[in-house]
Amino acid sequence: MAHGKHIYRVSVQWTGNKGSGTSGYREYGRDHLIRAGAKPDIPGSADPAFRGDAARWNPEDLLVAATSACHKLWYLHLCADAGVRVLSYMDDAVGAMADDPAGGRFTDIVLRPRVTIAAGGDAELAARLHHAAHEKCYIANSVNFPIRCEPVIDIESAVEPAER
């Protein structure tokens, strides 16, 4: 694994000028495009509570997604190293944000990964590796609010798909 300083370059281009710029709070759109090299653009906006477009990603969505994805990547790495064969992984993560006159902030993120491991696998080890993944996650190590993980570990059924 590479060690040292890693640089990430992203551009965010505001596309919400409706003709008069920011002449008033209700006069401009919150839409933007997030770009990073040759990767597909991410259409962004504000949360609908802040006059954004619900069909686009908002910064809060992206923070929860980044947290979930970082945890998953570390978890899969640790499982591979430990001989736990993961067959599927689905996380229904939820982030909570408090908004008050002094400013908004995330209060917590709860990760709820549902993991299926191969038949005969060690479900207890698979569950414990979530703690280790959390300890290594770059995003979790960078935020100032709690991130909890409530994993569910399933073991692959011995029944062949054709027999179901």
TrEMBL record:
It comes from the Bacteria. InterPro entries: KH_dom-like_a/b, OsmC/Ohr_fam, OsmC/Ohrsf, OsmC_Ohr_Peroxiredoxin. Coiled coil: none annotated. It holds the Pfam family OsmC. This is Peroxiredoxin.
